[in-house]
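Support request, please re-run this one:
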Amino acid sequence: MKKLLIQAQCPHCGKSLNEGEWIGLLVEVEGQGKGEIKLSAYFGDYSVILPFPIEEGKIANFSCPHCEKNLKIENKCTLCGAPLFRIKIKTGGYVDACTRKGCKGHAIGGFGEVDELMFLVNKLINSPFL
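Re-run finished. Output below.
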């Protein structure tokens, strides 16, 4: 399967969140600490570099390392009910991801045209229907 590298931006200030193949964010977990977390920039890859150990099931707050605004949105994860956070995709749309450690809930969306989303999905699965 073809890997899709997400070019991430802060939805507030618009600055790039990418650090090579990683997305760098500030993370805070109540009772556990604050620091910079790195998430894989490949859609569907759950690799992460933690600044400190985070207990399974804990909910984290994510913010932009540039403007420090919280990335949490009103929507809840359809898998576990925890809050979601959002990063903007440079070429359009966004990725929402669950804030609960261990949950793999995430979604891609925000495309005005169905054709744009289908193009992205076809690129992701290396479909001949581009």
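The first helix runs from residue 114 to 124. Residues 11-124 form one domain.
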